[in-house]
């Protein structure tokens, strides 16, 4: 059983008095871990009694180093030392291993804003050396506890609110990098005079990596603060080395995406990625070597069969269909391009004048149901639209909702490049999904939807023009306007009033004029006019 506390700032009697009271009521704890400022500007009088041995800390206490030049003199040895009986300075950076096998990684100081780094600061080199000392160990899975004084930058991404603290501006990017690499089960920080217990986050990419343990980030307030914010945290932890793997990787119900996903993606990979042809099929959600499905050969033939595959006729609709091109119900004035197997049409009540749909000419319910010929033409339309929108300084976001719909509609919405990055778009979708308790997962880059969903499976998926995809398997109710709501939100297009297409529908002459304008602009990119 352990205790962790925030900035003590020299209030030794306050913190140790509180520890004594807790132990009298709840029994003995093994150690107290202190993050943030252990010493303050008025520490000397109280500290002298502990330094001289007149008073003794009631529990083994481990502290981080100085965060300002004012308190450097309290830490005589940069590599760590005993400051007083039962009070130990851990050092500038390193790993403390308890006799039980518990591993505690620590980093003292704040992030340096200049080089060389002042004595109370850490640099990128400090972080790199700490990472190397741990990551080079065989079978490294993570550490039990990470202690830093600053918060990690962006820790609030995908998470519950941190109150007044803006986690996109507060804290250290180097600490974020450290946390992303060391995968601590608990990460404690302070300095912001605030208490924040973040929802636990994953340390693996769902569907791409083996499940791993979660991380709990806890920021603690300053000791004895008048606002009664929590500054002392009690927890029990069994060392990772003593746990059964299945128990260690259990995922709590409130687990979120990793807030440092961007950092993890930017990190250099130890091994070159396999090409699409080399990539083992079993890495996907379904093992494609079994009966759930097969990878489509690039030559249009089944392996071991010299006969060309017979093209399947699409199923016929059970009633009137608004999107089968041969149907009298199609609003043909919205059609802007017609290929052999697919066509493009402006969306009715679109989020923007260039919001388009990619639709199969025949009746197919979802991407999963498409024949290879239709899928190939969908891919050509995606490539043409990417080139077209990029020429206008935009990137597209595509989504499909295979739920309460009978004809496939791939919604393609352009977003200005200077408005947000592809990572911003993914974060917006994941954050709003979590708010509505929708599990939206990133799927492997070289996979397609047919590899994670079987025909007849209700699902929602998002695809960026970079090829990145997010997927949700629908098991109950699902908000019909979810894709539009996210794109229309303040985080992206900032047009929440356009989330419902029925509020955006224009008169037929205006729609026809928009279609003509799109057709004219798209013409240089339209392969259907050349094929």
What's the quick description here?
This protein has helices at 12-26, 44-51, 124-135, 173-182, 245-248, 261-266, 372-391, 422-435, 482-488, 508-522; strands at residues 2-5, 31-34, 61-63, 81-84, 87-89, 93-97, 103-107, 110-111, 121-122, 145-148, 186-189, 196-197, 216-219, 232-235, 335-338, 342-346, 356-360, 394-402, 410-416, 441-443, 459-464, 469-473.
What does the main sheet amount to? 8 strands, antiparallel
Shape: elongated
Distance between the termini: 71 Å
- Low-pLDDT windows of residues: 268-311
| Class by alpha and beta content | alpha/beta
CATH architecture of the largest domain: 4-Layer Sandwich
CATH class of the largest domain: Alpha Beta
Describe the fold and architecture.
The protein is an alpha/beta fold and 531 residues long. The protein is built from ten helices and 22 strands. An eight-stranded antiparallel beta sheet has the order 15-16-17-19-18-21-22-20, sandwiched between helices. The protein has a six-stranded mixed beta sheet with strand order 4-5-3-2-1-14, with no helix packed on it. Strands 6-7-10-11-13-12 form a six-stranded mixed beta sheet, covered by helices on one side. 39% of the residues are buried. Residues 268-311 have low confidence and may be disordered.
